[in-house]
Amino acid sequence: MNAKELCEGSRANYANFITWVALDRSNLSAGRQLSVNYFIVAVILFFAQLLFGMIAATQFIFPNFLYDWLDFSVNRMVHINAMIVWMLYGFIGCVYWLLEDESGTEIVGLKLGKLAFGY
After folding, report:
1. CB-based contact 83:49 (threshold 8 Å)
2. Most buried of the four, 15, 51, 96, 108, by CB within 10 Å?
3. Per mean pLDDT, which range of 4-13, 27-36, 66-75, 96-105 is the poorest?
């Protein structure tokens, strides 16, 4: 499998995920539409943090568990980084969700916020 096929598969999976969640964004403002993207990534990273935390706990008790595939120190690093990044994405999503209502104006720099998602 080359990188192009992997990217196409990821895009198809993302499209299926959006359909599965059934997010109707037509009635949301541009800032709230962007915040939904941040919330989706935050939830995905939260579950990744849980998964790597459980693997790290298992490796702490049984040191040879997945040692050839995933070392404990790398696993711990991914667990902690996923925790930090999902919290940041959640906070950024909250800011985009609340900013227009609290300020009473439209958000000017939405293109900069969309940069994290490649569009």
Report:
1. yes
2. 96
3. 4-13
